[in-house]
Design brief:
Blueprint lengths: L6 H10 L1 H6 L7 H10 L1 H18 L26 H33 L10 H4 L11
Helix pairs in contact: 1-3
Length: 143
């Protein structure tokens, strides 16, 4: 959802951004399809989003804090201040879920706002009504 919180923004990114094209496997669905899919699969999408962020954090792609997979204590020279207790890990996961819920809510607000501006099926890059039909345009005599 980086820089593309509204469905129109995500749809536009599928056209313009190489990373989005790769993630979309070359498919460019309409913004309405993207929004309907997200709404239909919101619970699964949210759970998957949490997993993806956790995996990205483990791989070092993003920095959100520390992820502990195993509670086994191993003698090491690592900082004790950086170690994460189970309670703190649960708190971090709760915070992560809240942040993701806020992002999803922000996307919904952005979609609602864009729907109010462009209509439910307008892509946002349509020509103004007065320019859509050649017959409706004013003819200017440039002699």
């Amino acid at each position: 959802m980086r820089r593309a919180r509204s469905r129109r923004g995500r749809s536009r990114a599928l056209h313009e951004d190489v990373a989005y094209r790769v993630l979309g496997a070359g498919n460019v669905p309409a913004h309405r399809t993207v929004a309907d899919f997200r709404r239909l699969h919101l619970q699964t999408f949210t759970a998957l989003f949490v997993q993806v962020v956790q995996i990205a954090r483990e791989a070092g792609v993003v920095q959100l804090g520390t992820v502990a997979i195993d509670g086994t204590k191993v003698h090491a020279n690592a900082s004790k201040r950086k170690a994460m207790s189970y309670a703190r890990m649960l708190e971090q996961e709760r915070r992560l879920r809240e942040e993701i819920a806020a992002l999803i809510a922000a996307a919904e607000v952005a979609d609602t706002s864009k729907d109010a501006t462009h209509g439910p099926d307008g892509a946002g890059d349509d020509l103004p009504a007065e320019l859509q039909r050649r017959e409706a345009r004013q003819v200017i005599d440039r002699r």
